[in-house]
Structure formats: structure tokens, C-alpha cells
UniProtKB/TrEMBL annotation:
<keyword id="KW-0472">Membrane</keyword>
<keyword id="KW-0998">Cell outer membrane</keyword>
<protein>
    <submittedName>
        <fullName>SusD-like protein P2</fullName>
    </submittedName>
</protein>
<dbReference type="InterPro" id="IPR033985">
    <property type="entry name" value="SusD-like_N"/>
</dbReference>
<feature type="domain" description="RagB/SusD">
    <location>
        <begin position="342"/>
        <end position="490"/>
    </location>
</feature>
<keyword id="KW-0732">Signal</keyword>
<feature type="domain" description="SusD-like N-terminal">
    <location>
        <begin position="26"/>
        <end position="214"/>
    </location>
</feature>
<dbReference type="GO" id="GO:0009279">
    <property type="term" value="C:cell outer membrane"/>
</dbReference>
<dbReference type="InterPro" id="IPR011990">
    <property type="entry name" value="TPR-like_helical_dom_sf"/>
</dbReference>
<dbReference type="InterPro" id="IPR012944">
    <property type="entry name" value="SusD_RagB_dom"/>
</dbReference>
<dbReference type="Pfam" id="PF07980">
    <property type="entry name" value="SusD_RagB"/>
</dbReference>
<feature type="signal peptide">
    <location>
        <begin position="1"/>
        <end position="19"/>
    </location>
</feature>
<dbReference type="Pfam" id="PF14322">
    <property type="entry name" value="SusD-like_3"/>
</dbReference>
<comment type="similarity">
    <text>Belongs to the SusD family.</text>
</comment>
Length: 490
């Protein structure tokens, strides 16, 4: 059968503590994790967990894109505390996201604990171990960037243990992520057949390992691990498994889905989630009323996220940049044949038609080959600026594909200038891929960029300090787990 990562094992999402950690005494998992089939189902559930926290109801979309100058959450630019920089510890999405991440970490931990006691071929055991460590690493990678230091849980906890949990430091969490991804890369296969498309490979683990080193080199840790990041990216590039597509639109084409441009992607099938597209469209009049309500109950004009792109983003594309027309759309063909004009919205994961519940059958690219190439170029510049060197070639290849002229050292005369060039190209190339906010934080540019952006709406004073680079620990977590301290500024 074709292994698309669909929703399985929903029963394992229930938890007993403020951390949403399933204790060892939980009866809901008794009798499970006993066979290879059980382990495989649990691993698929871990992949589904990634989909849930990245692009479904507990989406980090809301916590990342809506926190940046790419998108806003609500019905207008000044509506939604995330976009306004007025977040408090009681904001519901924070506790929802926290619980979802730890529920999925618990699943990965249980797989790792059960594996030694389940009979199977050694190659499959290694694969499942690698997948569990890979998914756990990705959950923690999000948590540490959203909240800073968080509880480090790598085994099943008793109820008493979970309530007494403390926060680890951000550096300790990053160390665990590096360990998990390094071990995953050694355990995972280099590729799969088509029946297992969507599972993590050695190269996905290597790509994320490079990304983690990149983040550790930036704010706030500033560990200067550029050479380690470069090495990891170099291994992905030299693997021969991936391809820089000649056409930007092909990257997001259903016909090219699962192609060599994707290092790791989240599998989607229409009708499987029922949550709609993260970026709904609205009537051009800004009316909240949906254009039409389709079967399945979700309006074409809305979704559980209520995220809309900003004019700041649409205005940032250079004239003639083909990426704008691929990423952004304002006209849609209804199934009745009517052309509907809306305010601009993301169309990377849509096919241009109105469908039930905004539920398109297009996979979500979590780590693209272009992203790997651009991060590799960034490490080259950080290690040492080279006028018109390899780092220039990589970004100019990206620009050429976008229909733009190349830049030279006269345009980008220094390491600092290259950093700003990279920032702009990443925004245009990778918009709506949960990257913009994290990019601004790791380069320590978020304070300046967001103060300027919100200043357009009279809210510059809302951007106060680097404390806002992190979200507050959810109040419900602190109420139930007294040893967990709050982040500064909240």
C-alpha cells in the first residue's frame, strides 16, 4: 500500500498532566507497542503529529507566520494578539501547541522504549529507531525556538515525575536535538521505494542537523558552528538525491509532488484532515462573510487559522519576480465556473479551484532542497565573505529561476550586505513555509524589522525587547507544574 502519513492512533493523544505526558501507568496504551505492526502504526502517528503541529489545528503557522511581517492573524492588521505583539500566557493557542508537542514527544519516546522488546528484522528496527529520534528532534526544535528552555523528556514519566518536571536550558535542548538527529542520520536509509514516500531519510536528518547548527550559530546561543552546518548541508548536496528545479512553479506542482526538490515533506490527501488550508481567502471588500460554504462545513473564505498575508510581503517582491505569481493568488475558479476575486492569499498549496473545506491534495514541504542550498550559502558567507564566490552563485541561481538579474560584488560589497540579500531572497523564495519569523530571530533582526512593520499601523511601541523573541510559557502549564518558571518579560 502507498504509505501516506495519515491520521492514526488518535487515542494516544490523551495525557494526564500539564505537560500532556502519558504516564507509565496509563491504561490506554496497554497491549499496544507489542508487534512490528504496532510500532509501524506508532511511527506513522508520529509523522501525523508533525502535520498536526505544523499545518493543522495546533499549527505553528499561527505562531510563526502571523508573528512576522508575512501574515497576520484575525480579520484585520490590528486584530490578533500574536500579530500585535500583545501575547499573554493565557492565550489559548499556546497551551494547545504545548500539549500537542509534548503528546507527540511522548509517542516518540514510547516507540524507543518498546523497540528492544519487539521481534523484527534489525534493518527495520534501526529504521523505526531513526524515525522516532528524527520526529522527537523536530518537535523539540520547534519548542526550543518558540519557548526557549523547556522540559527535556526522553522517557515515559510517572504522574508524580511529570508534575515535578523542571525546564532544561535552551542549550541542553539543542544538545538533545543534535544527538537525536546525528543518531537518526546513522540509522535511517538513504531512500525508500514509492510505497513509503514521506518517511524520513538519512538526508532529511542531515539537512535538519545542518539547520540546527545554523540556528545554534545565531541568536541567542551564538555558538559559531557554521563549519558544522556547512558540512551537514554539503553531504546533502553531494548525495545526488536532490535536484534544483529549473522552474519555481514545479516545486509546488501536484504533478511534481514528492520530487527531488523535497528533502522532507508532510504528506497530505484531500479529505484526510478536514481542517482546510492554513491561508484562507476573503472577499475583496474585507467582509468576514465567506464567499461560499462548501461540503464539509469549512467556508472558502476561512479556516481555523484565519491567517492572511500582508501588503508588506506582496510589496516586497521585485518587479518581474515570478515567485510572486506562484506564491500569491487573488482570483479563483469556483466549481460552478464563476471566477471569484479575493484579497491576495497564499496559493503554494492550492490548485486554483475552490474545493470542499479548502482541502487540497498537495503535500507541504517541510525542508526543501532550495532551503538547504540557501542555508549552505549562508554558512559560506559567515565563514568568510568571498566577492562573487560560491555563495553568490547559489543566490544568483535562485534569482535566475525567479526571472531576476544576477547581483555582483558591486551590489553586495560585504558580509553584512550579503546577509541582508539572503534575508530578502529567503523571504521571497520560502514565504509561507514557517521560516520568516525564525529567520528574523536567529539573525537578531526581528526587533528592528517588526518595529518598523508595526510602526506602519501605530503599534511600534508594542515591540519592546528581545524577550518577545520567545512566547510565554502557557499559564495552565505553570499552574499545574509549579517548578516550570516563566520567560522574562511575561
Amino acid at each position: 500500500m502507498k504509505t501516506k502519513i495519515y491520521a492514526v492512533l488518535a487515542c494516544l493523544l490523551s495525557g494526564c498532566s500539564s505537560l500532556d505526558l502519558i504516564p507509565v501507568s496509563d491504561k490506554s496504551v496497554e497491549g499496544f507497542y507489542k508487534t512490528e505492526t504496532h510500532i509501524n502504526q506508532a511511527v506513522l502517528g508520529a509523522y501525523n503529529g508533525l502535520r498536526n503541529v505544523w499545518v493543522n489545528a495546533q499549527s505553528s503557522y499561527m505562531l510563526t507566520e502571523a508573528r512576522s511581517d508575512n501574515a497576520f492573524q484575525g480579520t484585520a492588521y490590528d486584530d490578533g494578539p500574536i500579530s500585535r505583539f500583545e501575547v499573554t500566557p493565557t492565550l489559548p493557542v499556546l497551551s494547545t501547541a504545548w500539549a500537542a508537542y509534548y503528546s507527540n514527544i511522548t509517542r516518540s519516546n514510547r516507540i524507543l522504549e518498546a523497540l528492544p522488546n519487539v521481534t523484527m528484522e534489525d534493518t527495520k528496527r534501526k529504521q523505526y529507531e531513526g524515525e522516532a529520534k528524527f520526529t522527537r528532534a523536530l518537535f523539540y526544535f520547534d519548542l526550543v525556538r518558540l519557548f526557549g528552555g523547556v522540559p527535556k523528556v526522553t522517557r515515559s514519566l510517572s504522574i508524580d515525575e511529570s508534575y515535578k518536571t523542571n525546564r532544561a536550558t535552551a542549550e541542553e535542548i539543542y544538545d538533545q536535538i543534535v544527538t537525536d538527529l546525528t543518531e537518526a542520520a546513522a540509522l535511517l536509509p538513504e531512500s525508500y521505494d514509492n510505497t513509503n514516500k514521506g518517511r524520513a531519510t538519512k538526508w532529511a536528518a542531515k539537512g535538519y542537523l545542518g539547520k540546527v547548527y545554523l540556528f545554534r550559530s545565531g541568536y541567542p546561543l551564538k555558538k559559531q558552528e557554521w563549519a558544522k552546518a556547512r558540512q551537514a548541508f554539503s553531504e546533502v548536496i553531494s548525495s545526488g538525491q536532490f535536484e534544483f528545479f529549473a522552474s519555481y512553479s514545479d516545486i509546488y506542482s501536484f504533478a511534481k509532488e514528492g520530487g527531488k526538490q523535497q528533502v522532507f515533506s508532510i504528506q497530505f490527501k484531500a479529505g484526510a484532515s478536514g481542517n482546510g488550508n492554513p491561508f484562507p481567502t476573503r472577499n475583496a471588500s474585507n467582509d468576514i462573510a465567506p464567499v461560499t460554504v462548501e461540503a464539509g462545513g469549512l467556508p472558502f473564505g476561512g479556516s481555523p487559522f484565519n491567517l492572511f498575508l500582508t501588503a508588506d510581503l506582496t510589496d516586497s517582491f521585485e518587479k518581474g519576480d515570478v515567485r510572486k505569481s506562484v506564491a500569491i493568488r487573488s482570483q479563483w475558479l469556483h466549481k460552478s465556473g464563476q471566477v471569484i476575486t479575493t484579497l491576495p492569499t497564499c496559493q503554494k498549496y492550492q490548485n486554483g479551484t475552490v474545493v470542499a473545506g479548502n482541502d487540497w491534495d498537495i503535500d507541504w514541504i517541510a525542508l526543501s532542497y532550495t532551503d538547504v542550498l540557501m542555508m549552505y550559502a549562508e554558512t559560506l558567507n559567515e565563514i568568510g565573505y568571498e566577492s562573487n564566490g560560491e555563495a553568490f552563485k547559489i543566490l544568483n541561481d535562485v534569482r535566475k529561476r525567479a526571472g531576476l538579474a544576477a547581483k555582483t560584488a558591486s551590489d553586495v560589497p560585504s558580509q553584512a550586505a550579503y546577509r541582508l540579500w539572503m534575508e530578502a531572497e529567503r523571504r521571497s523564495e520560502l514565504c509561507f513555509e514557517n521560516l520568516r519569523w525564525f529567520d528574523l530571530v536567529r539573525t537578531d533582526r526581528a526587533l528592528d524589522v517588526m518595529k518598523t512593520y508595526l510602526g506602519k499601523f501605530g503599534m511600534a511601541a508594542n515591540v519592546k525587547s528581545r524577550d518577545q523573541y520567545l512566547y510565554p510559557i502557557p499559564q495552565s502549564v505553570r499552574d499545574n507544574t509549579p517548578n516550570i518558571t516563566q520567560n522574562p518579560g511575561y
